[in-house]
């Protein structure tokens, strides 16, 4: 002991250093989902966190996998149409159109003009519903209930119009191979005109409440940024690609149906963040409303006309003849039990769905049952880069980013 | 080889005369069947020399009874020229494997995982080849034609 003083641990250079050293900074892993109130979609995130910063993000999809392709490959060509409704259930008509047009490509069928205008019109109504869900639900998940209600009211109007046209709000099952189920009801144009005005009013209200709302803008600006180059590398399409400044839209690059006769613009963003995605979606809704109006004008100008192609391979014979003639009876029987025999071959057809390029790659061996029905799901492909987009971001940024990627479980997981 | 109306395919044949096995442009879709061993070289050429910057889709088709049994199908898109091309590579059943193109196209990552999951085709050089739509304990590959639709799967207990 020798009279010495007791020794103390060496004093820290500064209080901050000491604080840093003692702070518990181990990474922690957080499971988010598969059922989480702030994600409209069944998906699981495995998040490695450093405090509130995302270090690593593993996205686990597949919770809604129900064997879409397998089911399609075990039924007839016609029986796949209701399954396509359930891909992106916000905009079912668009998936119907994509699938039927791919089959028509293999069959070599050109649909009548009347049908094409109806397809465009119903598709654009579905696109509006999809974008409204995306923007409305994003507000909801950022804890803004009011704009969500405006959005959902407008979506309800759009779905009411689809219900008038198709008989169902969500899973419309409206498009047929070679046509549509039936033409417009007589009072549709007047109702549509009224509803379009109401949707515009609701969109204006939505805009007033949210677009320059400080909290909303702060949560969205510069979060979930993806560059032009990354979009291309990851084959991202749709509003996400356009918000990054690339003006690619299948409706313009490869116009199908009557899109080349329509007057509409493709909005593009600059930064590629969530706020740009929001603005692009809102502008696309206005453009879609313009398209619907042009379709109504054109349909009025054309008057009534056939909505089905006059091709006996896909069209049922007239009922009067079925009851009185043998050949038509047989044809009816064959049409109902096996549907069209699609010529041998393969084909890829893509349309612009609300989420991006929705493609169908079909292979036929000449029989009534498809060999392959591949759906190129934009939700799935657009979700893939999300892990990279959020590396180093705050945990809270995950919510708006996921919302504006708009992963739809039905389409992503098939 | 027939006429196919696509400058990209013409370039591809000039560059790889022995790797391109068939071409056609039925229904307007330019298509080339290439040697599976050369797939990475072919895709690199198409990306770097023919501006096919986007790999839109990767899928497979099971032609049960044919040899080679599987066909891996790639859909490429050139945004600047607004051109599309389809590349196919045939893969045998016994060694169902092909080189991964993730190093060229980031979008191939999830799509190759899906093909691996549903068809059981391996992708050599893939950084993270796991099942994606189905769970790890799933037995078999459901999109193979010899997988019956009605097959039941064993119950899986909770994972830790």
Largest beta sheet: strand ordering of chain A = 1-2-3
- Approximately how much helix is present in the residues of chain B? 10-25%
- The chain-level mean pLDDT of chain B equals 86
Based on helices, strands and strand pairing, what is the structural class of chain B?
A: alpha/beta
Major β-sheet annotation of chain A: 3 strands, antiparallel
Report on this model:
The complex is a heterodimer of chains A (414) and B (160). Chain A is mostly helical and 414 residues long. Chain A has one domain (68-413): Cytochrome-c3 Hydrogenase, chain B. In chain A, 48% of the residues lie in helices and 11% in strands. In chain A, strand 2 and strand 3 form a beta hairpin. In chain A, helix 4 (92-107) runs antiparallel to helix 5, helix 5 (113-141) runs antiparallel to helix 6 and helix 5 runs antiparallel to helix 12. Chain A is elongated and about 120 Å long. Chain A starts with 14 loop residues before the first helix and ends with a helix. The model of chain A has no long low-confidence stretch (mean pLDDT 87). By secondary structure, chain B is an alpha/beta fold. Chain B has a domain at 7-97: NADH:ubiquinone oxidoreductase Nqo5 subunit (Beta Polymerase, domain 2). In chain B, 21% of the residues lie in helices and 26% in strands. In chain B, the strands form 2 sheets. Chain B has a 5-stranded mixed β-sheet with strand order 1-2-5-4-3. In chain B, strands 6-7 form a two-stranded parallel ribbon. Chain B is globular, with a radius of gyration of 17 Å. Chain B starts with 6 loop residues before the first helix and ends in a 36-residue tail after the last strand. The A-B interface holds A 61-62, 65, 67, 69-71, 73-74, 105-106, 230, 232-236, 246, 248, 253-254, 345-348, 350, 357, 359, 361, 363, 371-372, 374, 376, 380-381, 383-385, 413-414 and B 26-27, 29, 31, 53-57, 59, 61, 63, 73, 75, 77, 79, 82, 84, 86, 105-107, 109-111, 114, 118, 131-135, 142-143, 147, 149.
